[in-house]
Amino acid sequence: MYGFEALTFNINDGYLEAIVRGYRSGLLTAADYNNLCQCETLDDIKMHLTATEYGPYLQNEPSPLHTTTIVEKCTLKLVEEYKHMMCQATEPLSKFLEYITYGHMIDNVVLIVTGTLHERDVHELLEKCHPLGMFDSIASLAVAQNMRELYRLVLVDTPLAPYFSECITSEDLDDMNIEIMRNTLYKAYLEDFYKFCEKLGGATAEIMRDLLAFEADRRAVNITINSIGTELTRDDRKKLYSNFGLLYPYGHEELAVCEDIDQVRGAMEKYPPYQSIFAKLSYGESQMLDKAFYEEEVKRLCLAFEQQFHYGVFFAYMRLREQEIRNLMWISECVAQNQKTRVHDSVVFIF
Amino acid sequence: MTGSSSWSQALVQISPYTFAAIGIAISIGVSVLGAAWGIYITGSSLIGAAIKAPRITSKNLISVIFCEAVAIYGVIVAIILQTKLESVPSSLIYAPESLRAGYAIFASGIIVGFANLVCGICVGVIGSSCALSDAQNSSLFVKILVIEIFGSALGLFGVIVGIIMSSQASWPAKAA
């Protein structure tokens, strides 16, 4: 019952909530990011990171470091924390934690199928997959020629199976179809996650509703902007938007007919939360849009920690970690390529 | 007793000893329920938070002690109440004085039991938040402790009223 979660939440999930809040206190702060941004080489970055929570993961790396190694070790830390929480969790928290990884599974599937299309080696692709989205039969994705085979051979045994009903066609896979498949799968996943949270009810439903609605709206805007100028028809574009969120349904109708970024801006300015995002960009510019969306997302994720006794903290923590890994990757790349002036273009401070 | 059979007659035909005994049972049983509820709410958060911040364990045991105090109130009142149970000769069991004494002990038990139940839950929830905030920022502990002290006063209110209520539970003197 909403309002009385405090009475029974701690029976099953109190320990894990306290653990995830402990993990959150280990996220890098603005002071850490300032230190990292002033590093000259990757070894300096390694030294600074060894003083933070990432210490045990990075200190044994041999000296010519690559940015991919840093990102890989940081992701390894996230995966270990996730597995620690997962093995202690009971239903329905374990189901909730699984839902968080389905997005990565979809990305991995698309990565392997695209890579196979471009004739890359399967093992090379498997190493690039995100560890949170691995499942057993993932290597056999390389064999499929079209979506129906993809589904029948591999995906029917995975948790992604119910998301495929809308996008099974017998067409051969090519770049355009794969992107449409990715977005259709993601749409089905977000709607399924949304329904699951609504079923959980209480504070979890309220907080996750807000976070997932923002995610759905952000994806709608990105799909619109990325499909301007491509062959994607308006109806196809509209089919990729999720059935919930602040923009549903009227915002989607406006976004479906947009032909350039200023029209997108005009459509979004009717919604106060997104108007403030678009106000940060000057006319005609879209590079900073990603960063503006990330900043807004981080703000909302931090707010999820203000309330106790709900599952939103787990989702928020995973997302904040991913943002931190993105920040570290950007900083490492800037330092490695000697472009330190551009460091602050894309780093989003969390605290 | 006469042969009429309305519900009001049903109540006064239950022995006052029944009411008194149930009151004593509720006083201790429900108080311990409240204390246990509060302790597990606080304890699970405290254990998880202490992994990252081990310094909080000894200070935050105060929350657990406040919850435990609630159970002790229940025990004390139950012991006091059971000393109030006296035997009366069978002709006087349903006399108004006896009924009054039985109801007074019953009411006292309910007061103490339910006041301690909500007090235990209240202190437990606050203790859980206290542990989690102390792990992040140690200056918050004393401030949240003040809230817990106010919460634990609720149990005391129940005990005071319960004892006053039971002190005037006097069974009729033996018939001359």
Automatic annotation (TrEMBL), chain A:
A cellular component annotation (GO) from this entry: vacuole
Domain of life (superkingdom): Eukaryota
The keyword RNA-binding belongs to this UniProt entry's keyword annotation: no
Keywords for the protein's UniProt record, in alphabetical order: Hydrogen ion transport, Ion transport, Transport
Pfam families given in the database record: vATP-synt_AC39
GO MF annotations in UniProt: proton-transporting ATPase activity, rotational mechanism
Keyword Ion transport assigned: yes
InterPro entries: ATPase_csu/dsu_sf, ATPase_V0-cplx_csu/dsu, ATPase_V0-cplx_dsu, V-type_ATPase_csu/dsu, V-type_ATPase_csu/dsu_dom_3
Subunit structure: V-ATPase is a heteromultimeric enzyme made up of two complexes: the ATP-hydrolytic V1 complex and the proton translocation V0 complex.
Family note: Belongs to the V-ATPase V0D/AC39 subunit family.
Entry function: Subunit of the integral membrane V0 complex of vacuolar ATPase. Vacuolar ATPase is responsible for acidifying a variety of intracellular compartments in eukaryotic cells, thus providing most of the energy required for transport processes in the vacuolar system. Subunit of the V0 complex of vacuolar(H+)-ATPase (V-ATPase), a multisubunit enzyme composed of a peripheral complex (V1) that hydrolyzes ATP and a membrane integral complex (V0) that translocates protons. V-ATPase is responsible for acidifying and maintaining the pH of intracellular compartments and in some cell types, is targeted to the plasma membrane, where it is responsible for acidifying the extracellular environment.
Protein name from the UniProt record: V-type proton ATPase subunit
Automatic annotation (TrEMBL), chain B:
GO cellular component, one term: proton-transporting V-type ATPase, V0 domain
SUPFAM superfamilies in the record: F1F0 ATP synthase subunit C
Record keywords, A-Z: Hydrogen ion transport, Ion transport, Membrane, Transmembrane, Transmembrane helix, Transport
Residue spans crossing the bilayer: 20-40, 61-81, 101-128, 140-165
Location relative to the cell: Membrane
Membrane topology listed for this record: Multi-pass membrane protein
Primary residence: membrane
An example molecular function term from Gene Ontology annotations: proton-transporting ATPase activity, rotational mechanism
InterPro entries: ATPase_proteolipid_c-like_dom (IPR002379), ATPase_proteolipid_csu (IPR000245), F/V-ATP_Csub_sf (IPR035921)
Function according to Swiss-Prot or TrEMBL: Proton-conducting pore forming subunit of the membrane integral V0 complex of vacuolar ATPase. V-ATPase is responsible for acidifying a variety of intracellular compartments in eukaryotic cells.
Family: Belongs to the V-ATPase proteolipid subunit family.
Assembly with partners or alone: V-ATPase is a heteromultimeric enzyme composed of a peripheral catalytic V1 complex attached to an integral membrane V0 proton pore complex.
Protein name from the UniProt record: V-type proton ATPase proteolipid subunit
Species this protein is from: Rhynchospora pubera
